[in-house]
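Lab manual, section 2.4: Encoding a predicted structure.

Procedure: take the sequence of the chain (437 residues), apply the prediction step described in section 2.3, and record the output as structure tokens. A sample record is shown.
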Amino acid sequence: MKLTFYGAASEIGRSCIMLESNDARVLLDCGVKIGRADEYPMIEDADLAGIDAIIISHAHLDHSAYLPHVFSTGYNNPVYSTKPTMELINILVTDYLRISEPENVEKTGLQDMQKHFRLVEFHQEFNVKDLTIKLVPAGHILGSAMIEVSDGKQKLIYTGDMNMRGTRLLEPAYTQLLHADTLLMESTYGGDTDMFPSEKVIINQMIGSIKETASSGGKIIIPSFGVGRAQEMLLLLDDYMKSGQIPPMPIYADGMINKAMRIHRHNVIYCREELQKRILLNDDDPFKSKNFIQVGTVAERKKVMTEKEPSIIVTTSGMLTGGPVLKYMERLGADPNNKVIIVGYQAEGTRGRELVNGSRKIRVGPKLVDVNLKVEQYHLSAHSDRQQLVSLVGKVEGLGKVILIHGDKAKSNELAEAIRKDHETSVPALKDEITVG
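Recorded output:
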């Protein structure tokens, strides 16, 4: 099998890897790198026509948002994913096209994309010509999968984005009985210093900060990815409010978060067992908590921003690249009593990264908006850290080769040094080709 890296090689974003066997050509993911200017996979349109299938690991835009463009070029073959991934892609990509109006992702392919999904369950094998493929849970977001591919001689596992820690929503990545000759692994947090502290300590610090701001009458803005991080945050806030550790106040959910919440509720069988039991056996539905108030109109948003009482606002987008969060920052950002809490990864070139790096102004449309509110960051990641990535390598039986992608080049190289003593390890660059087997 041969791999060609059209994205996510020595970088984070635009995941897109061509896998070729004797008979088949498939794409593993098909995303966009979102930042100051969007960047697209480096595959030529003429090469898309010869692809037999696209397999999507999960719904985040850096793994899925290029699909409408692919179908705009005349691609007419299947896209394989889990059911939640398909449903989440439909709302995420539609929203991305509406808000961002990207230059090279045509809306004309959107309907064709939706028609060509082929849904597969976890652990269910399917074939694309001479390839046998299986998806197993990755623990990253709802429906996320690691992709196992075999041509009958060699077996490869592509992790996509994966999390080996359980969360409020999901069980950890499936790591039992893994066997492969090659591991194509993400390295987002593979750097020497990327060791996550205890989540309990981080959450307690964040809850203390929320209480402090609320006691002074301020509002707390939590920019969140519409899928995954937002649901984790809402369930966390709801639990702490029900237990009395956060004082009663409105928790507003704005942007596509509300559509994504409904998809999570309808696909609860893909969530952790404890959550399923709460809903199915105890009639305790955390996705429909009375503490949540949906915001869906301009008038409702204005009311949230002008009311005097403290509140928590969970809103898209997670890196402040667009969406309702910019309206809240424009209106509430000048008040030092307010606070913005950053809980997700912030890519280089985004407003979120600028805030974390200390910028006191952000651009919203043509305006430069003053940022006088407090800015805090709490690391609550849906990715594995350095220690967990190294441990995954040790769990794969028969492993000969490790290829590290989806990481800043320095972090990928640091992780490679830790793995290289036991396995042949490489960090490809964009458009590199690697033969496995």
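Check your result against the sample. The chain has a mean pLDDT of 94.
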